[in-house]
Amino acid sequence: MALNFFKPIVFFLLLATATASDPDILTDFIVPNTSNSINGDFFTYTGLRDMWNSHYPPYFTVTKAGLKEFPALDGQSVSLSVLEFPEGSVNPPHIHPRSAELLFVVDGTLDVGFIDTTNKLYNQTLKLGDIFVFPTGLVHFQYNSYKVPATAISAFASVNAGTVSIPNTVFSTGIDDNILAKAFKTDAETVQKIKAGLGAKP
Ligand SMILES: *[C@@H]1O[C@H](CO)[C@@H](O)[C@H](O)[C@H]1NC(C)=O
Ligand SMILES: *[C@@H]1O[C@H](CO)[C@@H](O)[C@H](O)[C@H]1NC(C)=O
């Protein structure tokens, strides 16, 4: 995929701006006790190399570089994700319980928004090069309504910010249809339709 705006230094800017929220550590860094000796390779994550040369995926896709993928992040309170939005794709409303999200558009245009605890919507159309902050723990979304693909890099102030997807959390976890019907002031049939659409077992 084409990334005319991408520059490696951007990663460092994003990481440096993130404020720490994970527990502090008492050593410079944490090495897994399964490693005998480490060098620069331990602090290098190469798992995103190929994505810059490949085509946009057909669906909205998140590629993470967090603690699971990159063990050297342990104790450092930073991580990032690359978000790829083919034309018309959406990252459905979701929450990151353990971090704010600093989203930087490096390709295309994105409609984004979040809702605060008074149910006020704050939204924006982000152009190439724009940065938007989603405050910690608030429901937010991103949508590519444009005729070209979009890519964003998101930095987090946690090695494991966590994601709670609102549609899946509510409709794909076995909550009784009648409870959901009452909660959404609709009928069980409508709830079943939504569940089916999300690929949940009816
Ligand atoms: C590594 O540390 C874990 C947790 O402290 C411990 O359970 C495990 O036995 C250790 N493994 C080795 C190879 O020392
Ligand atoms: C924000 O959302 C409102 C309501 O959906 C919409 O009319 C408006 O165009 C959006 N603004 C931006 C900047 O995306």
UniProtKB/TrEMBL annotation:
Sites binding Mn(2+) sit at: H94, H96, E101, H140
Is Methyltransferase among this UniProt entry's keywords? no
**In this protein, which residues make up the domain named Cupin type-1?**
46-192
Supply the CDD domains for this chain.
Answer: cupin_OxOx (cd02241)
UniProt binding sites for oxalate: N91, H96, E101
**Compartments where found:** Secreted, Extracellular space, Apoplast
What are the record's GO terms for cellular component? Answer: apoplast
User: Keyword set for this entry?
Assistant: Apoplast, Glycoprotein, Manganese, Metal-binding, Secreted, Signal
Signal peptide bounds: 1-20
Q: Which domain of life is it from?
A: Eukaryota
Output the Gene3D superfamilies linked to this UniProt entry.
Jelly Rolls (2.60.120.10)
* GO-annotated molecular function: manganese ion binding
What Pfam families does the record tag this protein with?
A: Cupin_1
Described purpose of this protein according to its UniProt entry: May play a role in plant defense. Probably has no oxalate oxidase activity even if the active site is conserved.
Belongs to which family? Belongs to the germin family.
Q: How does it assemble?
A: Oligomer (believed to be a pentamer but probably hexamer).
- Name this polypeptide is given: Germin-like protein
Give the species this sequence originates from. Ziziphus jujuba (Chinese jujube)
What is the taxonomic lineage of the source species? Eukaryota, Viridiplantae, Streptophyta, Embryophyta, Tracheophyta
